[in-house]
Amino acid sequence: MVETKIKPISAFISEYLAERKPRKGEVLRFEGCGGRDVYNCSVPFDFNGKTYIWGRVEKREEWATSVSVLFEQKDDGSFVRAEGADAYQLEDPFFMEIKGEYILGGTHVVKDKAKIKTYYVYFYRGKSPFALKYFTTGPDYMKDVRLVELTNGRIGVFSRPRNDEILEKFGTVSQIGYTEIDSLDELDAEVIDRAAYIPGCFAENEWGGVNQAIALRGGLIGLIGHQGYTLWKGEQEYPIYVNTAYIYDPAHNEIVKKEVIGVLSDYPPTDTKTPAHIYCAFTSGIVGTGEKVRLYSGLGDAHEGWVEIPDPFRGYR
């Protein structure tokens, strides 16, 4: 195993908790879902004068049975299903614009005899969120692939490999990789698999991934992501997921800055999918460019919310 001396995420969390201040926030309200939870959403976006968000919809007592649905925001701030939009068999949807096209992605779970066999990221593209066509698939057993349109016109691609080889070599559950392409037509599993690992992202037994990538000044890339580890209290296992921000320098393949920007207790209190999910905040991304931005996150695998935070990329935009 490669010997690493990387600061553990638990230390970042402790520093964050020691300095954090109360935050303005809200839990999103979704209507017309038949009692199902909506969580781990995309960030909200505007299209033709209206605000929309993609959400993962699932029954509280079920796993890996999600669909991703487009919701439209009403005048009172709540969200209802957008008429005329397809539902997709995806978990944890993300949505972005690349070179004049909208891109929807998410985790597609494959089952065999009702058991999870593997999963992939499926990608859809189109000129409208109401007219998206499936066009490519990520690598086997990989979630959290993300794209970003760079200032030089190329497309940055972030991967998140997770396998026994990584655990044996690095002692981490997953890694983050990076590569670039010139066109969406080049995006496929082979390209994503070739992404070079970014050193220093995770300490031993940690995992994480990129949820949103934002092009910054000077060729840098801002990454809003999640990072986690397993906390044991007696015989009870608790997955810890926190909201993180990185500033990445692709020219030197290094992380320039890293910080925790949110934890579940920052958000208004909610119930969770199971009692074990009381520390689980699965990041969606940030919205805004001023001194303050809204950080959106899934909450306890059961809800979606936001809190107002200082822009983690201030001074770099």
TrEMBL record:
A Pfam family the protein falls into: DUF1861
SUPFAM superfamilies: Arabinanase/levansucrase/invertase
InterPro entries the UniProt entry points to: Glyco_hydro_beta-prop_sf, MPT-1-like_LmxM
Protein name: DUF1861 family protein
